[in-house]
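cron nightly-structures :: item 1 of 1
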Amino acid sequence: MARRKKIYEGKAKILYEGPEPGTIVQYFKDDATAFNAEKKAVIEGKGVLNNRLSEFFMTGLGQIGVPTHFIKRLNMREQLVRSVEIIPLEVIVRNYAAGSMSKRLGIEEGTQLPRPIVEYCYKDDALGDPLVTEEHIAAFGWASQQDMDDILSLALRVNDFLSGVMLAVGIRLVDFKIEVGRVYEGDFMRLLLADEISPDSCRLWDIETGQKLDKDVFRRDLGNLADAYTEVARRLGVLPKTNTAVKKPTLIN
């Protein structure tokens, strides 16, 4: 499709004006960043994988009634989504201790939590996306109490869906983060799952080996990030499990 006006460029995606009012074209870049963009690299094919995987997850969530901004995939790197007003929060759901939680609370990585724990971070790169409480959210007017109740319910539904999908292919969903946006339809407002769901925004470990299949591969220099994401895509059936060699035609007598 014809290139349209750029609205916003982030660390992993570029947003362009969509073909219709109320739509946006979301372009997935190959850029990989970690530690608030202190570590950077370009991973060939990463954007294509994340586009396909996010389409897979958003479509599946839509089929079970979770409202999302996803409309359709346009090509290998772009998808059409609804324009939303992003609530300035990262919503993190943790099933196992890992990353910053392990550091903050001194819990060994991989420890199963008594129940899923939902945390909130204020979206501000300059501040390093600090952890905030519901008191902060209410005091600064980032979201109402009804919004927070709906966000919590949505986050736990996403967790149930993703955990089941991953378990079925031998992957443990350690944690993930989502973003939520508001859409207005006349006087009515509702919340939608926005941004993306991909190995960029999830921690995914192989159940048998503990091998990391997410952005920690890049953060911790554990191997090839594209290979890890490709493995996730293959297990989920988003990509073929094996490459079929092209054979020469056989002459039939």
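cron nightly-structures :: done
The radius of gyration is 19 Å.
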